[in-house]
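Saturday, quiet lab. Running sequence design on the structure tokens for the scaffold JK sent over.
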């Protein structure tokens, strides 16, 4: 989501005559787009904001902008703590970020140009829904991003069409919960079908999904529409019904398992990835074992595992955080080890298979491409391959990537 917002900001600012620089010391404005989802993300951002004081000493005209969820949550504190920060743009004002930056930082040399010309890139990100209504008990997102708001589907189709006209071959639809997209009569399944009808667009991906909102319609569209890639990121978080209830996730493990079954039956080539939180308040060894067993049973293609950290203002932050950091680390490493073992087994079976890939970029004669299921595939090739779809015979497999030869 943040990458998409940064990308959009870059596009709009470029129409006003601004351009990206490789070296921060050449910049007139530095924009830090921040994330609040975990304590670690905020610590990283704080450390980076701290470093901007040094940039400013070297270039006193430099303007520092902090935007995103952390700006929403801690804007005043950031301003107070760091003299270097000139402008704070909260997550709820991200749509107007470019204008705010132009007015505050570039006002003397801005070249106003109404043309909204997106750069040519093979994979583009499009936010279709902002905010979230789910209020999972551990999550800060609804507080900093606000309630769910689906964006006008016709504007989304126009935006996607323009991106395709400018060279995009794949579009990734984004939202905290894309499944609950609803604009008038258009729900997420219908939106997918409409976007799939855009000529010259080859692939559509989407994330992220909430198990409670994943319905048969969406699964059927994934099966029927070849442009929709067979990959779903479906956060499970825990397999203990007690913990799922405390997390306010609104589904049971049995329901989750049922969805996995439907997905694998209806879309046989599907790749399924997930998120897991370990060490949530009141997570006993038995709850943790349930989650670990679910990882073994479901055999995800990949997963992200997080150690629970309380986010101030959330319901969970008022619960007793009884699992020690040591124990969280232990559970984290067990899940990661198990998941890596499963991933290796899954990718090993891909050796000798032929994968249809889309070439995204090239570096030193090696093309970085992506298979339909989402895995990165590296293959020798030339610039002419970029933006094209072709078959690759897989020779070597690593946990997160595959290597092969063009067939
Ligand atoms: S669905 Fe839950 S975890 Fe995801 S953004 Fe909304 S509140 Fe946070």
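Result came back. Writing it out in full:
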């Amino acid at each position: 989501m943040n990458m998409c917002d940064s990308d959009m900001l870059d596009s709009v600012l470029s129409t006003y005559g601004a351009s990206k620089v490789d070296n921060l010391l050449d910049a007139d404005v530095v924009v830090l787009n921040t994330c609040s989802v975990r304590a670690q993300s905020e610590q990283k951002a704080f450390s980076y904001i701290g470093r901007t004081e040094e940039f400013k000493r070297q270039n006193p005209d430099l303007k520092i902008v902090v935007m995103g969820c952390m700006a929403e949550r801690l804007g005043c504190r950031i301003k107070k703590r760091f003299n270097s920060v000139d402008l704070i743009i909260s997550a709820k004002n991200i749509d107007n970020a470019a204008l705010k930056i132009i007015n505050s930082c570039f006002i003397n040399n801005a070249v106003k140009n109404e043309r909204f010309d997106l750069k040519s890139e093979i994979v583009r990100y499009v936010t279709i829904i902002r905010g979230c209504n789910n209020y999972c008990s551990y999550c800060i997102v609804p507080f900093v991003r606000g309630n769910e708001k689906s964006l006008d589907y016709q504007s989304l189709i126009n935006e996607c069409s323009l991106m395709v006209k400018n060279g995009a071959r794949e579009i990734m639809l984004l939202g905290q919960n894309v499944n609950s997209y609803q604009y008038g009569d258009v729900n997420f399944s219908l939106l997918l079908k409409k976007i799939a009808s855009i000529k010259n667009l080859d692939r559509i991906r989407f994330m992220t999904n909430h198990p409670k909102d994943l319905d048969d319609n969406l699964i059927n569209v994934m099966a029927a529409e070849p442009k929709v890639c067979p990959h779903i990121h479906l956060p499970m978080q825990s397999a203990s019904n007690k913990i799922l209830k405390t997390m306010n996730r609104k589904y049971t493990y049995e329901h989750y398992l049922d969805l996995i079954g439907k997905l694998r039956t209806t879309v046989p080539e599907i790749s399924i990835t997930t998120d897991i939180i370990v060490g949530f308040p009141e997570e006993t060894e038995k709850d943790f074992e349930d989650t670990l067993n679910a990882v073994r049973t479901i055999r995800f293609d990949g997963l992200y595992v997080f150690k629970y950290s309380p986010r101030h203002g959330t319901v969970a932050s008022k619960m007793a955080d009884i699992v020690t950091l040591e124990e969280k680390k232990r559970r984290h490493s067990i899940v990661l080890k198990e998941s890596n073992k499963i991933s290796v087994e899954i990718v090993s079976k891909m050796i000798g298979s032929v994968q249809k890939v889309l070439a995204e970029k090239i570096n030193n004669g090696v093309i970085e491409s992506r298979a339909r299921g989402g895995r990165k595939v590296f293959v020798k090739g030339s610039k002419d391959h970029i933006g094209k779809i072709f078959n690759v015979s897989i020779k070597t497999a690593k946990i997160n990537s595959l290597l092969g030869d063009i067939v």
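Notes for JK: Residues 354-406 form a domain with the OB fold (Dihydrolipoamide Acetyltransferase, E2P) fold (CATH 2.40.50.140). Residues 161 and 198 are 6 Å apart (CA to CA). Ask whether to fix the surface positions before the next round.
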